[in-house]
Amino acid sequence: MTREELTRAFAERGIRKVKVGGFDVDGVLRGKLIHLDKFESAASDGFGFCDVIFGWDVADNLYDNATVTGWHSGYPDALARIDLGTFRVLPHEPDTACFLADFYDAATGKPHAACPRNLLKRVVGQAESAGYKPLMSAEFEFWIFREDPESLRAKGYSGLDPLSPGMFGYSWVREGQHADLMHDILDTMEAFDIPIEGLHTETGPGVWEAALRYTDAVEAADRAALFKTTLKQIVHRHGLAVTFMAKWNPSLPGSSGHIHQSLFDSAKERNLFEDAKAPHGLTDLGMHYVGGLVKLAGELTALYSPFVNTYKRYVPGVWAPMTPSWGVENRTCAVRVIPGGKGTRVEYRQTASDINPYIAMATTLGAGLWGARNAVAPPPPAQGDATEAGDPLPMTLEHAVEALSRSEAAKEILGEAFVDHYVRSRDWEVREYRRAVTDWELKRYFEVV
């Protein structure tokens, strides 16, 4: 969108304020409201945004090991550049324009080493240089509760009241019982340019799944990341709360965040994965793409599974993949191949709903391209239950970080500077967890030992 088109759109919509933000390494949208006059200069020249957003964790605690910013640098401003093409307006804030920004080093003007959106743009650029147009989408499972921020804290995040009781997947009844909320979600997301392809209950009290529409990779990540932020705002208006934690309750299934992907030609006319005559419905390019995903799954796990809690999802019997496996229409695998003409695609199933979409999509795309460049043949496809097919994936964040820190492929795919910062951030996360004393430990050991 040009500046002239934007000026007309602002006038037509009666825009009086602007909200601008960008996503940090944990997938949190950090932003601010700015005056229209400030927006005019920021849209042309960028604006300063404190780089502490890359120097603290999901709870705003400062890292003690970061090099991209910190006490040693004084936490200066990064340069935020607004992407005018991300212009959106939320229906319940009709006079406020929303934009996403990318972050750059203020001194050099180069992309900030820790900026997830620029990371994805760079990997997409590699695909396009090779003649491919990557298309992606995300699907998320999430749990809705009759709670608010105050009640969640008062209850200590336990004994929560779900939106609806029982295990009732694909329930037409539950959708009808909560029609006002569901239609608000569908209509608000559509108006905010996050079209939802499907929305339904999953198996569990108050759990739902939304599948987002397929589109270009960067736009797909924008939609996925904004979906989570926007849903939290929508349910709050209904007096509810939502979580995208990978595993919020040990007695219930975890929450997946699968990534669908394919490569088209540069004109987006031909699916380069599709070959109906091939044994598995995939071209050689598609097979090598799968080969890269499978080959690198273990060493890239920390990028797909970013938090300590993510690994609680990896338990048998709930379709969460536990091995670097693949199969055709096999939901127990880490990589599910879905053949079907122009819709032929790969679904990456290792990821949970707590992903940073930019990082996870950049990693899956990068791993697939790595497989294509190196003509990596995948192992034989898994038949039946794949949870024990081959060596296990890392089962803790600590082990995943160790594997990522040794990965030369990760540095090749994502760049050494980003991988270094990411490893440091996850090492901090592991150390913060080690300091915690959990309810499980208190209940198990307090009186007995």
What is the strand and helix layout of this fold?
Layout: H1 3-13, E1 17-23, E2 29-35, H2 36-45, E3 47-50, E4 77-89, E5 96-104, H3 116-129, E6 132-145, H4 149-154, H5 172-177, H6 179-191, E7 196-201, E8 207-212, E9 215-216, H7 217-237, E10 241-243, E11 257-265, H8 284-296, H9 301-304, E12 326-328, E13 335-338, E14 345-348, H10 357-373, H11 397-405, H12 408-414, H13 416-435, H14 439-445
Parallel strand pairs: 1-5, 12-13
Antiparallel strand pairs: 1-2, 3-4, 4-5, 6-8, 6-9, 6-10, 6-11, 7-8, 11-14, 13-14
Offer a concise description of the structure.
With 449 residues, the chain is of the alpha+beta class. The protein is built from 14 helices and 14 strands. The longest helix is centred in the middle third of the chain and has 21 residues, at 217-237.
Walk me through what this model shows.
This protein is of the alpha+beta class. It has two domains: 110 residues, Glutamine synthetase, N-terminal domain (Ubiquitin-like (UB roll)), CATH 3.10.20; 290 residues, Glutamine synthetase/guanido kinase, catalytic domain (Creatine Kinase, Chain A, domain 2). It is 35% helix and 20% strand. The protein contains 14 helices and 14 strands. The strands form two sheets. Strands 6, 7, 8, 9, 10, 11, 12, 13 and 14 form a nine-stranded mixed sheet that branches. The chain has a five-stranded mixed sheet with strand order 2-1-5-4-3. A hairpin with a 6-residue loop joins strand 13 and strand 14. Helix 6 crosses helix 7 and helix 12 packs across helix 13. The model has no long low-confidence stretch (mean pLDDT 97).
